[in-house]
Design the sequence.
Protein backbone atom coordinates (compact mmCIF):
# COMPACT_ATOMS: atom_id res chain seq x y z
CA UNK A 1 0.00 0.00 0.00
CA UNK A 2 1.39 3.39 -1.02
CA UNK A 3 1.88 6.28 1.39
CA UNK A 4 1.18 9.55 -0.45
CA UNK A 5 2.93 12.38 1.38
CA UNK A 6 3.00 16.10 0.72
CA UNK A 7 6.05 17.43 -1.13
CA UNK A 8 7.15 20.76 0.34
CA UNK A 9 10.44 22.58 -0.19
CA UNK A 10 12.02 19.46 -1.66
CA UNK A 11 11.09 17.28 1.32
CA UNK A 12 8.39 14.69 2.02
CA UNK A 13 5.96 15.77 4.72
CA UNK A 14 3.58 13.52 6.63
CA UNK A 15 0.58 14.79 8.58
CA UNK A 16 -1.51 13.41 11.39
CA UNK A 17 -4.57 13.05 9.16
CA UNK A 18 -4.92 10.67 6.21
CA UNK A 19 -7.64 9.54 3.82
CA UNK A 20 -8.04 6.45 1.65
CA UNK A 21 -6.99 6.06 -1.96
CA UNK A 22 -8.97 3.30 -3.72
CA UNK A 23 -8.60 1.59 -7.07
CA UNK A 24 -11.83 2.30 -9.01
CA UNK A 25 -11.46 -1.03 -10.84
CA UNK A 26 -12.31 -3.10 -7.76
CA UNK A 27 -12.64 -0.56 -4.90
CA UNK A 28 -9.53 -2.04 -3.29
CA UNK A 29 -7.61 0.14 -0.81
CA UNK A 30 -4.27 0.95 -2.45
CA UNK A 31 -2.95 3.89 -0.46
CA UNK A 32 -3.17 6.42 2.34
CA UNK A 33 -2.99 10.11 1.48
CA UNK A 34 -1.66 12.65 3.98
CA UNK A 35 -4.08 15.58 4.04
CA UNK A 36 -2.39 18.98 4.21
CA UNK A 37 -3.63 21.36 6.88
CA UNK A 38 -3.07 25.07 7.42
CA UNK A 39 0.56 24.55 8.41
CA UNK A 40 1.44 22.47 5.34
CA UNK A 41 -0.25 24.80 2.85
CA UNK A 42 1.44 27.78 4.49
CA UNK A 43 4.83 26.04 4.40
CA UNK A 44 4.37 25.19 0.72
CA UNK A 45 3.43 28.77 -0.20
CA UNK A 46 6.37 30.16 1.77
CA UNK A 47 8.76 27.69 0.16
CA UNK A 48 7.49 28.65 -3.28
CA UNK A 49 7.91 32.36 -2.54
CA UNK A 50 11.43 31.83 -1.18
CA UNK A 51 12.47 29.83 -4.27
CA UNK A 52 11.05 32.55 -6.49
CA UNK A 53 13.21 35.15 -4.79
CA UNK A 54 16.18 32.82 -4.45
CA UNK A 55 17.79 30.14 -6.61
CA UNK A 56 15.00 29.68 -9.14
CA UNK A 57 14.54 33.38 -9.74
CA UNK A 58 18.27 33.81 -10.30
CA UNK A 59 18.53 31.22 -13.08
CA UNK A 60 19.03 32.33 -16.66
CA UNK A 61 16.30 31.40 -19.12
CA UNK A 62 18.50 28.76 -20.78
CA UNK A 63 19.18 27.14 -17.39
CA UNK A 64 15.43 26.87 -16.76
CA UNK A 65 14.95 25.42 -20.22
CA UNK A 66 17.58 22.75 -19.59
CA UNK A 67 16.07 21.81 -16.22
CA UNK A 68 12.58 21.47 -17.70
CA UNK A 69 13.94 19.26 -20.47
CA UNK A 70 15.55 17.18 -17.73
CA UNK A 71 12.17 16.89 -15.99
CA UNK A 72 10.60 15.66 -19.23
CA UNK A 73 13.39 13.14 -19.67
CA UNK A 74 12.96 12.07 -16.05
CA UNK A 75 9.29 11.28 -16.69
CA UNK A 76 10.28 9.27 -19.75
CA UNK A 77 12.93 7.33 -17.82
CA UNK A 78 10.30 6.35 -15.26
CA UNK A 79 7.59 5.87 -17.88
CA UNK A 80 6.35 2.55 -16.47
CA UNK A 81 6.13 3.97 -12.94
CA UNK A 82 4.02 6.89 -14.16
CA UNK A 83 1.74 4.63 -16.21
CA UNK A 84 1.23 2.30 -13.25
CA UNK A 85 0.47 5.23 -10.94
CA UNK A 86 -2.03 6.68 -13.42
CA UNK A 87 -3.93 3.46 -14.03
CA UNK A 88 -3.97 2.61 -10.31
CA UNK A 89 -5.65 5.94 -9.54
CA UNK A 90 -8.02 6.10 -12.52
CA UNK A 91 -8.56 2.55 -13.77
CA UNK A 92 -8.17 3.74 -17.37
CA UNK A 93 -6.92 1.28 -20.00
CA UNK A 94 -3.17 0.83 -20.28
CA UNK A 95 -3.20 1.88 -23.93
CA UNK A 96 -4.81 5.23 -23.10
CA UNK A 97 -2.43 6.03 -20.24
CA UNK A 98 0.66 4.93 -22.17
CA UNK A 99 -0.22 6.60 -25.47
CA UNK A 100 -1.82 9.84 -24.21
CA UNK A 101 -1.49 10.75 -20.54
CA UNK A 102 2.17 10.07 -19.83
CA UNK A 103 3.69 11.08 -23.20
CA UNK A 104 1.76 14.36 -23.09
CA UNK A 105 2.86 14.89 -19.50
CA UNK A 106 6.50 14.81 -20.59
CA UNK A 107 5.85 16.78 -23.78
CA UNK A 108 4.23 19.66 -21.88
CA UNK A 109 7.54 20.49 -20.20
CA UNK A 110 9.54 20.43 -23.43
CA UNK A 111 7.02 22.39 -25.48
CA UNK A 112 6.79 25.29 -23.05
CA UNK A 113 10.50 25.25 -22.26
CA UNK A 114 11.26 25.67 -25.96
CA UNK A 115 8.57 28.32 -26.36
CA UNK A 116 10.01 30.55 -23.67
CA UNK A 117 13.30 30.89 -25.56
CA UNK A 118 11.65 33.19 -28.11
CA UNK A 119 9.00 35.28 -26.40
CA UNK A 120 7.72 38.10 -28.63
CA UNK A 121 7.88 41.55 -27.07
CA UNK A 122 6.64 44.89 -28.39
CA UNK A 123 8.81 47.98 -28.86
CA UNK A 124 7.82 51.55 -29.74
CA UNK A 125 9.77 54.69 -30.54
CA UNK A 126 8.15 57.81 -29.06
CA UNK A 127 8.81 61.41 -30.07
CA UNK A 128 8.99 63.44 -26.85
CA UNK A 129 7.85 67.08 -26.34
CA UNK A 130 11.46 68.29 -26.14
CA UNK A 131 12.17 67.02 -29.64
CA UNK A 132 13.96 63.94 -28.43
CA UNK A 133 12.96 60.31 -28.37
CA UNK A 134 12.02 57.62 -25.89
CA UNK A 135 12.08 53.89 -26.36
CA UNK A 136 9.26 51.85 -24.88
CA UNK A 137 9.56 48.09 -24.71
CA UNK A 138 7.62 45.33 -23.05
CA UNK A 139 9.14 42.61 -20.95
CA UNK A 140 7.38 39.61 -19.47
CA UNK A 141 8.15 38.79 -15.86
CA UNK A 142 6.91 35.85 -13.75
CA UNK A 143 3.57 36.35 -12.04
CA UNK A 144 4.88 34.73 -8.85
CA UNK A 145 3.57 31.77 -6.88
CA UNK A 146 0.90 29.91 -8.83
CA UNK A 147 -1.68 27.71 -7.12
CA UNK A 148 -2.47 24.78 -9.43
CA UNK A 149 -5.70 22.91 -8.63
CA UNK A 150 -5.99 19.82 -10.80
CA UNK A 151 -8.75 17.45 -11.95
CA UNK A 152 -8.82 13.66 -11.77
CA UNK A 153 -9.70 12.68 -15.34
CA UNK A 154 -6.28 13.26 -16.98
CA UNK A 155 -4.16 13.81 -13.87
CA UNK A 156 -0.60 14.12 -15.17
CA UNK A 157 -1.53 15.57 -18.56
CA UNK A 158 -3.67 18.41 -17.22
CA UNK A 159 -1.40 19.11 -14.25
CA UNK A 160 1.70 19.49 -16.43
CA UNK A 161 -0.34 21.53 -18.94
CA UNK A 162 -0.30 24.16 -16.17
CA UNK A 163 2.95 23.44 -14.33
CA UNK A 164 4.98 23.31 -17.57
CA UNK A 165 4.25 26.89 -18.71
CA UNK A 166 4.22 28.20 -15.14
CA UNK A 167 7.77 27.00 -14.50
CA UNK A 168 8.96 27.90 -18.00
CA UNK A 169 7.90 31.49 -17.33
CA UNK A 170 9.91 31.53 -14.09
CA UNK A 171 7.08 31.06 -11.59
CA UNK A 172 6.97 28.57 -8.75
CA UNK A 173 3.97 26.35 -8.02
CA UNK A 174 1.94 24.77 -5.26
CA UNK A 175 -0.05 21.90 -6.75
CA UNK A 176 -3.23 20.49 -5.21
CA UNK A 177 -4.02 17.29 -7.12
CA UNK A 178 -7.47 15.76 -6.93
CA UNK A 179 -8.05 13.72 -3.81
CA UNK A 180 -8.90 10.80 -6.13
CA UNK A 181 -5.61 10.87 -8.06
CA UNK A 182 -2.59 11.67 -5.86
CA UNK A 183 -0.17 9.34 -7.63
CA UNK A 184 1.51 11.08 -10.55
CA UNK A 185 1.71 14.52 -8.91
CA UNK A 186 3.54 12.89 -5.99
CA UNK A 187 5.79 10.87 -8.29
CA UNK A 188 6.72 14.05 -10.16
CA UNK A 189 8.18 15.38 -6.91
CA UNK A 190 10.70 12.53 -6.99
CA UNK A 191 11.66 13.46 -10.55
CA UNK A 192 12.06 17.14 -9.60
CA UNK A 193 14.52 16.20 -6.85
CA UNK A 194 16.34 13.67 -9.04
CA UNK A 195 17.09 16.17 -11.83
CA UNK A 196 18.07 19.03 -9.53
CA UNK A 197 15.13 21.43 -9.67
CA UNK A 198 15.69 23.77 -6.69
CA UNK A 199 13.68 23.06 -3.55
CA UNK A 200 10.45 25.04 -3.31
CA UNK A 201 9.90 25.38 -7.06
CA UNK A 202 7.43 22.48 -7.20
CA UNK A 203 5.31 21.71 -4.15
CA UNK A 204 2.39 19.31 -3.67
CA UNK A 205 -0.29 19.53 -0.99
CA UNK A 206 -2.94 16.82 -0.78
CA UNK A 207 -6.51 17.25 0.30
CA UNK A 208 -10.03 18.20 -0.70
CA UNK A 209 -11.75 21.44 -1.68
CA UNK A 210 -13.89 23.43 0.81
CA UNK A 211 -12.37 23.49 4.28
CA UNK A 212 -9.28 21.64 3.08
CA UNK A 213 -6.15 22.20 0.99
CA UNK A 214 -7.99 23.51 -2.08
CA UNK A 215 -9.71 26.35 -0.23
CA UNK A 216 -6.65 27.11 1.90
CA UNK A 217 -4.48 27.40 -1.20
CA UNK A 218 -7.02 29.62 -2.97
CA UNK A 219 -7.08 32.02 -0.02
CA UNK A 220 -3.37 32.08 0.85
CA UNK A 221 -1.96 35.64 0.65
CA UNK A 222 1.37 34.50 -0.82
CA UNK A 223 -0.30 32.88 -3.83
CA UNK A 224 -0.26 35.30 -6.77
CA UNK A 225 -2.63 33.47 -9.12
CA UNK A 226 -4.85 30.38 -9.28
CA UNK A 227 -5.27 28.07 -12.25
CA UNK A 228 -7.95 25.40 -12.12
CA UNK A 229 -9.56 22.77 -14.32
CA UNK A 230 -12.84 21.26 -13.16
CA UNK A 231 -16.53 21.90 -12.57
CA UNK A 232 -17.99 25.36 -13.11
CA UNK A 233 -19.47 25.39 -9.61
CA UNK A 234 -16.05 24.72 -8.08
CA UNK A 235 -14.56 27.46 -10.26
CA UNK A 236 -17.07 29.92 -8.85
CA UNK A 237 -16.02 29.03 -5.29
CA UNK A 238 -12.32 29.38 -6.12
CA UNK A 239 -12.98 32.72 -7.79
CA UNK A 240 -14.68 34.01 -4.65
CA UNK A 241 -11.76 32.86 -2.50
CA UNK A 242 -9.18 34.36 -4.88
CA UNK A 243 -11.04 37.69 -4.89
CA UNK A 244 -9.41 38.47 -1.53
CA UNK A 245 -6.25 40.24 -2.63
CA UNK A 246 -7.57 40.57 -6.19
CA UNK A 247 -5.63 37.54 -7.48
CA UNK A 248 -6.11 36.62 -11.14
CA UNK A 249 -7.52 33.23 -12.14
CA UNK A 250 -7.32 31.00 -15.19
CA UNK A 251 -10.13 28.45 -15.46
CA UNK A 252 -11.05 25.62 -17.79
CA UNK A 253 -14.49 24.62 -16.57
CA UNK A 254 -17.47 22.46 -17.47
CA UNK A 255 -18.86 21.70 -20.88
CA UNK A 256 -21.97 20.30 -22.52
CA UNK A 257 -20.42 19.90 -25.91
CA UNK A 258 -22.37 19.27 -29.09
CA UNK A 259 -21.56 17.06 -32.04
CA UNK A 260 -23.27 18.02 -35.31
CA UNK A 261 -23.45 15.48 -38.13
CA UNK A 262 -24.68 16.60 -41.55
CA UNK A 263 -26.15 14.19 -44.08
CA UNK A 264 -23.22 14.80 -46.44
CA UNK A 265 -20.62 13.70 -43.86
CA UNK A 266 -18.46 10.61 -44.29
CA UNK A 267 -20.85 8.38 -42.34
CA UNK A 268 -18.43 5.78 -40.94
CA UNK A 269 -15.86 8.40 -40.03
CA UNK A 270 -18.51 10.47 -38.24
CA UNK A 271 -19.80 7.49 -36.26
CA UNK A 272 -16.27 6.58 -35.18
CA UNK A 273 -15.48 10.19 -34.28
CA UNK A 274 -18.63 10.72 -32.23
CA UNK A 275 -18.07 7.39 -30.47
CA UNK A 276 -14.61 8.57 -29.41
CA UNK A 277 -15.96 11.94 -28.32
CA UNK A 278 -18.74 10.40 -26.24
CA UNK A 279 -17.03 7.36 -24.71
CA UNK A 280 -13.24 7.86 -24.56
CA UNK A 281 -11.87 7.78 -21.00
CA UNK A 282 -15.32 6.51 -19.97
CA UNK A 283 -16.79 9.88 -20.94
CA UNK A 284 -14.67 11.67 -18.35
CA UNK A 285 -13.27 14.31 -20.71
CA UNK A 286 -14.18 17.98 -20.48
CA UNK A 287 -14.13 18.12 -24.29
CA UNK A 288 -16.37 15.07 -24.65
CA UNK A 289 -19.62 15.11 -26.61
CA UNK A 290 -22.83 14.51 -24.62
CA UNK A 291 -25.24 16.06 -27.16
CA UNK A 292 -25.37 14.81 -30.74
CA UNK A 293 -27.47 16.41 -33.48
CA UNK A 294 -27.83 14.42 -36.70
CA UNK A 295 -29.47 15.65 -39.91
CA UNK A 296 -32.78 13.86 -40.38
CA UNK A 297 -32.03 11.85 -43.58
CA UNK A 298 -29.36 9.80 -41.76
CA UNK A 299 -30.75 10.03 -38.21
CA UNK A 300 -32.12 6.50 -37.74
CA UNK A 301 -29.10 4.90 -39.37
CA UNK A 302 -26.73 6.95 -37.20
CA UNK A 303 -28.59 6.07 -33.98
CA UNK A 304 -28.34 2.36 -34.79
CA UNK A 305 -24.64 2.60 -35.64
CA UNK A 306 -23.68 4.57 -32.51
CA UNK A 307 -25.75 2.23 -30.33
CA UNK A 308 -23.82 -0.71 -31.76
CA UNK A 309 -20.55 1.06 -30.96
CA UNK A 310 -21.68 1.66 -27.37
CA UNK A 311 -22.49 -2.02 -26.94
CA UNK A 312 -19.14 -3.09 -28.41
CA UNK A 313 -16.74 -1.86 -25.73
CA UNK A 314 -14.72 -4.32 -23.67
CA UNK A 315 -14.59 -3.42 -19.98
CA UNK A 316 -11.98 -4.83 -17.64
CA UNK A 317 -8.69 -4.33 -15.84
CA UNK A 318 -6.38 -1.75 -17.43
CA UNK A 319 -3.78 -4.27 -18.63
CA UNK A 320 -6.15 -7.04 -19.75
CA UNK A 321 -5.91 -7.73 -23.52
CA UNK A 322 -8.44 -5.87 -25.63
CA UNK A 323 -9.82 -3.70 -22.82
CA UNK A 324 -10.81 -0.29 -24.20
CA UNK A 325 -13.00 1.15 -21.44
CA UNK A 326 -12.33 1.51 -17.75
CA UNK A 327 -14.52 2.34 -14.75
CA UNK A 328 -15.59 5.77 -13.58
CA UNK A 329 -13.21 7.45 -11.17
CA UNK A 330 -15.08 6.51 -7.97
CA UNK A 331 -18.24 5.07 -6.49
CA UNK A 332 -19.25 8.61 -5.58
CA UNK A 333 -19.02 9.75 -9.18
CA UNK A 334 -20.82 6.65 -10.42
CA UNK A 335 -23.73 7.45 -8.11
CA UNK A 336 -23.92 10.90 -9.69
CA UNK A 337 -23.88 9.54 -13.26
CA UNK A 338 -26.42 6.83 -12.42
CA UNK A 339 -28.65 9.59 -11.07
CA UNK A 340 -28.66 11.13 -14.56
CA UNK A 341 -29.31 7.71 -16.11
CA UNK A 342 -32.37 7.32 -13.87
CA UNK A 343 -33.55 10.84 -14.59
CA UNK A 344 -33.31 10.28 -18.34
CA UNK A 345 -35.69 7.33 -18.02
CA UNK A 346 -38.04 9.32 -15.80
CA UNK A 347 -38.15 12.09 -18.41
CA UNK A 348 -39.10 9.61 -21.13
CA UNK A 349 -35.83 8.80 -22.88
CA UNK A 350 -35.61 5.95 -25.33
CA UNK A 351 -32.59 3.91 -24.20
CA UNK A 352 -30.79 2.78 -27.35
CA UNK A 353 -27.87 1.19 -25.51
CA UNK A 354 -26.72 0.76 -21.92
CA UNK A 355 -28.49 2.71 -19.23
CA UNK A 356 -27.22 0.94 -16.14
CA UNK A 357 -24.47 -1.06 -14.47
CA UNK A 358 -22.79 -3.93 -16.35
CA UNK A 359 -22.41 -7.43 -14.97
CA UNK A 360 -18.75 -7.77 -14.03
CA UNK A 361 -16.77 -10.78 -12.74
CA UNK A 362 -16.64 -11.25 -8.97
CA UNK A 363 -13.20 -9.65 -8.67
CA UNK A 364 -14.44 -6.48 -10.36
CA UNK A 365 -18.04 -6.30 -9.18
CA UNK A 366 -17.21 -3.75 -6.47
CA UNK A 367 -15.62 -1.35 -8.98
CA UNK A 368 -17.17 1.86 -10.31
CA UNK A 369 -18.38 0.29 -13.56
CA UNK A 370 -21.10 1.74 -15.75
CA UNK A 371 -22.52 1.01 -19.19
CA UNK A 372 -21.84 3.27 -22.18
CA UNK A 373 -25.26 4.73 -22.91
CA UNK A 374 -27.11 6.28 -25.85
CA UNK A 375 -30.52 7.98 -25.58
CA UNK A 376 -32.99 9.54 -27.96
CA UNK A 377 -36.39 11.19 -27.53
CA UNK A 378 -35.80 13.79 -24.82
CA UNK A 379 -36.84 17.46 -25.00
CA UNK A 380 -34.05 20.03 -25.09
CA UNK A 381 -35.09 21.21 -21.62
CA UNK A 382 -34.16 17.84 -20.11
CA UNK A 383 -31.51 17.81 -17.38
CA UNK A 384 -29.61 15.19 -19.37
CA UNK A 385 -29.29 17.66 -22.25
CA UNK A 386 -28.65 20.82 -20.22
CA UNK A 387 -26.31 19.63 -17.45
CA UNK A 388 -22.82 18.17 -17.66
CA UNK A 389 -22.86 14.46 -16.74
CA UNK A 390 -19.19 13.52 -17.22
CA UNK A 391 -19.91 9.91 -18.04
CA UNK A 392 -19.95 7.63 -21.12
CA UNK A 393 -23.26 8.77 -22.53
CA UNK A 394 -24.90 10.96 -25.14
CA UNK A 395 -28.34 11.96 -26.38
CA UNK A 396 -29.02 12.02 -30.13
CA UNK A 397 -31.64 14.30 -31.69
CA UNK A 398 -32.51 15.07 -35.33
CA UNK A 399 -32.29 18.43 -37.07
CA UNK A 400 -33.32 19.66 -40.50
CA UNK A 401 -31.46 22.88 -41.30
CA UNK A 402 -28.05 24.37 -40.59
CA UNK A 403 -29.68 27.23 -38.68
CA UNK A 404 -31.55 24.78 -36.47
CA UNK A 405 -28.36 22.85 -35.68
CA UNK A 406 -26.58 26.05 -34.65
CA UNK A 407 -29.45 27.12 -32.40
CA UNK A 408 -29.60 23.71 -30.72
CA UNK A 409 -25.85 23.53 -30.17
CA UNK A 410 -25.71 27.02 -28.63
CA UNK A 411 -28.66 26.51 -26.29
CA UNK A 412 -26.76 25.76 -23.06
CA UNK A 413 -24.84 27.95 -20.58
CA UNK A 414 -21.61 26.21 -21.63
CA UNK A 415 -19.28 26.90 -24.54
CA UNK A 416 -16.20 24.73 -24.39
CA UNK A 417 -16.06 22.73 -27.62
CA UNK A 418 -17.98 21.35 -30.59
CA UNK A 419 -17.34 18.83 -33.33
CA UNK A 420 -18.88 19.19 -36.79
CA UNK A 421 -19.01 16.51 -39.48
CA UNK A 422 -19.61 17.57 -43.09
CA UNK A 423 -18.06 17.31 -46.54
CA UNK A 424 -19.04 20.90 -47.39
CA UNK A 425 -16.21 23.34 -46.67
CA UNK A 426 -18.62 26.28 -46.64
CA UNK A 427 -20.78 24.61 -44.00
CA UNK A 428 -17.67 23.88 -41.96
CA UNK A 429 -16.52 27.51 -41.94
CA UNK A 430 -20.00 28.87 -41.19
CA UNK A 431 -20.40 26.53 -38.22
CA UNK A 432 -16.92 27.37 -36.98
CA UNK A 433 -17.92 31.04 -36.89
CA UNK A 434 -21.44 30.57 -35.49
CA UNK A 435 -20.94 28.14 -32.60
CA UNK A 436 -20.37 29.77 -29.20
CA UNK A 437 -17.36 27.67 -28.20
CA UNK A 438 -13.67 28.01 -27.51
CA UNK A 439 -12.67 25.24 -29.92
CA UNK A 440 -14.52 23.79 -32.90
CA UNK A 441 -13.28 20.62 -34.60
CA UNK A 442 -14.29 19.88 -38.18
CA UNK A 443 -14.35 16.19 -39.16
CA UNK A 444 -12.22 15.39 -36.11
CA UNK A 445 -12.21 15.40 -32.33
CA UNK A 446 -9.43 15.97 -29.79
CA UNK A 447 -6.98 16.76 -32.56
CA UNK A 448 -4.70 19.10 -30.62
CA UNK A 449 -1.91 21.41 -31.71
CA UNK A 450 -0.46 22.57 -28.40
CA UNK A 451 0.60 25.91 -29.90
CA UNK A 452 -3.04 26.97 -30.35
CA UNK A 453 -5.36 28.71 -27.89
CA UNK A 454 -7.35 26.41 -25.63
CA UNK A 455 -10.23 27.45 -23.38
CA UNK A 456 -13.97 27.91 -23.15
CA UNK A 457 -16.62 30.53 -23.80
CA UNK A 458 -19.61 31.41 -21.58
CA UNK A 459 -19.54 29.36 -18.33
CA UNK A 460 -16.82 27.04 -19.62
CA UNK A 461 -13.83 29.06 -18.56
CA UNK A 462 -11.79 32.23 -18.17
CA UNK A 463 -8.65 32.84 -20.20
CA UNK A 464 -6.74 30.75 -22.71
CA UNK A 465 -3.94 28.21 -22.39
CA UNK A 466 -1.58 26.81 -25.02
CA UNK A 467 1.42 28.22 -26.86
CA UNK A 468 2.06 31.92 -26.37
CA UNK A 469 -1.47 32.32 -25.02
CA UNK A 470 -0.34 30.74 -21.73
CA UNK A 471 1.95 33.73 -21.22
CA UNK A 472 -1.06 35.97 -20.64
CA UNK A 473 -1.71 34.33 -17.29
CA UNK A 474 1.71 33.07 -16.20
CA UNK A 475 3.50 36.38 -16.75
CA UNK A 476 2.98 40.06 -16.07
CA UNK A 477 3.67 42.37 -19.00
CA UNK A 478 5.86 45.21 -17.78
CA UNK A 479 6.49 48.33 -19.85
CA UNK A 480 9.91 50.00 -19.65
CA UNK A 481 10.24 53.57 -20.98
CA UNK A 482 13.78 54.84 -21.62
CA UNK A 483 14.29 58.55 -22.38
CA UNK A 484 16.97 58.80 -25.04
Sequence:
Amino acid sequence: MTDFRNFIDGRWVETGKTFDNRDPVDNRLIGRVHEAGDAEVDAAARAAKAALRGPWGQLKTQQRVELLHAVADGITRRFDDFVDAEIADTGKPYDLASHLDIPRGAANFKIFADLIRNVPNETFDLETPDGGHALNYGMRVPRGVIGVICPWNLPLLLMTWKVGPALACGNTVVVKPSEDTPGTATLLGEVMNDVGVPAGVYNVVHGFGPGSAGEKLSRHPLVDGITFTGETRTGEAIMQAAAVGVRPVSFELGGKNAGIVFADADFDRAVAGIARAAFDNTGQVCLGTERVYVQRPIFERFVAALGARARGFKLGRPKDPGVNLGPLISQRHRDKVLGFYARAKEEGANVVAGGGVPDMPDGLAAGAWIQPTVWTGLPESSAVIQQEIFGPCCHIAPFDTEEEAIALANATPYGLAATVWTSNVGTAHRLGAALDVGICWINSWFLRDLRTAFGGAKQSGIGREGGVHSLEFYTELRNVCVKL
In short: The radius of gyration is 23 Å. Residues 5 and 14 are 5 Å apart (CA to CA). The longest strand covers residues 133-142.
